[in-house]
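Every protein is a chain of amino acids, and every chain bends into a shape of its own. Below is the pair of lines this work produces for a single protein:
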Amino acid sequence: PLVLKLGGSLLDLWNLGDLLLQFGQGRRILIVPGGGVAADTVRQLDVCGLLKAEQSHWMAIEAMSFNAGLLRRTLVGVSAADGLESTPWRWPEGVPLVLDPAGWLLGSGCAAAAQIPASWDATSDSIAAIVAAAIGVESLILGKSCEPCSMSMADLAAGGQVDACFPGFAGRLRAGWCNFRAPVPKVVCLQVETGQGDQ
């Protein structure tokens, strides 16, 4: 089984459903959606000082859940996790499950929620890593709209392609990157530096 963090920038990809079904062939997958445009709006309001840090934090997570609803309602062949996220061995093969991040963090994942700082240093990349670690899944793929600037998690964080906390949260996972907008999407493995993964 693996966790796929699906970047919010991919939601307008015309063939996203087909790509996810192809990606999921022979695999057991849990999708953690990014916040996309809705989270960007929250960030802008936060920068303007209109929201408190805790408000911004949870509104961004709610944006992820909003996008989870969009995926479940608009894509054929995906299904809601509905509690199955905690039992990866029961995930159906070839049918991607979509997690409701806010619901999970307020429910069975409440202990994991305490690890997430209420800042923009920990966004959906880190949350996906936290989900994977909490449910005992060792493999995490970041679904993105571009190629990585480096295979190093630290370099990706420094370049703004993942959030600042991601190297620490993902350091004990087998992490990869997949550009879903590439002509032929493929997974490349990310490297962790010594000392990471001690969160």
About this structure: The chain has a mean pLDDT of 94. The domain at 2-189 is CATH 3.40.1160.10 (Carbamate kinase). The beta strands are 2-6, 29-33, 79-80, 97-98, 139-144, 174-179, 187-189. The chain is about 40% helix and 15% strand.
